[in-house]
Fold this sequence. Notes:
By secondary structure, this protein is an alpha/beta fold. The chain is built from 13 helices and 18 strands. The chain folds into three domains: 1-32, no CATH class; 66-101 and 203-387, Rossmann fold; 106-200 and 393-425, Rossmann fold, CATH 3.40.50.1100. Helix content is 32%, strand content 17%. Strand 6 (88-89) and strand 7 (94-95) form a beta hairpin. The model has no long low-confidence stretch (mean pLDDT 94). Residues 100, 102, 128, 229-236, 301-302, 350, 352, 380-381 line the site of pyridoxal-5'-phosphate (PLP).
Amino acid sequence: MPTRLTCCKCGRAYSEHRLACEDCPDALLRAQYASRFSPTDDVGVFRFRCWLPADGFYPTPIGPSVFPSRGFGPSLGLKRLFIAFNGYWPERGAFNITGSFKDHEAPPTLVYFREQNHNEMVLSSVGNTARAFAHACSENEFPLCIVVPESMLHRLWLTREPSPHIRVLALRDSCDYSAAIRLGEKIRARFNVMIEGGARNVARRDGMSTSVLEFARLTGETPRYYVQAIGSGTGGIAAYEAGLRLRGDGRFGDRLPELHLVQNSPFTPIHEAWQAGRDDLAEPTSPAAEIEKVKAMYADVLANSHPPYAVVGGVRDALRDTGGDTHAVTRDDALRAKAAFERTEGGSINEPASCACAGLEQAIAKGSIDPEETVLLNITGGGYDLLRRDFKTYTLEPTRIVGEGDLDFDALESYEEIFDRTRCV
Ligand SMILES: *Cc1c(COP(=O)(O)O)cnc(C)c1O
């Protein structure tokens, strides 16, 4: 719906899409919606367009599937566990076509960007975000450039033929996500192409907030607890913002969902800062040490060394305001929890979702979750086996493979030349 963005720090309002306030680089912008909560009878994420920044929409079955747990909750002693199954599980109404909750952010972002006259996008990603956008941009003929480390290329598979509008710039010999972000940023700066924007993109956050909105639509309540595995923590911020809007609506009680955010050891910068009561994250250690940590992780998509923790309106504020907590789980914790979930509930869940299940177990063991109250567990991804059962799969081939310093941005005359293999240094 038509919306204004306001700065979480100074309150300045903007009518156009931006990634940051002109005066406050250390704060997020947040969308303000005039309407009350009024989900439609459509299926999918756009049924919540009252609280999405785009005016328009297109029909898609992609969206959160929320249902009461049949087996996993009772096995943990929980009375009211709800599962947001945000992967692919058609038997339980889950149709996320690339298998993760990143599918919720791509459609609203595309529609919003188009309305804001951005007709091209650059995205740096190591996996799920790239896949979600590659699918949505293929469906909508929206030109997209994905910058990805070469070592992660194997993750870029789709269940439909990628459109020629999708171009993949692979970083040679790299397994470094930060290098992909740097290159994406250079392309934006040189050619003024919109970047997806991560946590700073309100369409992304508001798309991600729809799990909490779907819970509210079904139950008429705000969940008492919200549990999710995080890397950037954007999904946590989004759940918090959904809570703020529901509280503002007035019909869903005056409580915010208490966030329980789960990280995967040994890569746990948010958990460490929160538990130590620090205002900011510790400085990342050396790049080599970071890579070792990523390699030791079970759910390496959760590795993010620059999450929006200390920005105003970011993860720290979301944890504080909701009275939330963080948890760190090991590979063994996650594997055990995955087995327990799949045995008691069915379906198949991916690595981050398994970490979330282990985090929920830990929160119960610590006594920080009251088993009588509602818990919304975000299963952020799963059902890859069913996707492969139901669809033919395609891999996204690199349009061009370059070294980090290979592209001479001063010499490039047009955006198109980036992809031209005959132009090199
Ligand atoms: C991106 C992602 C996460 C982490 O989400 P954030 O809220 O951005 O930290 C968790 N699970 C899956 C499957 C993801 O793709």
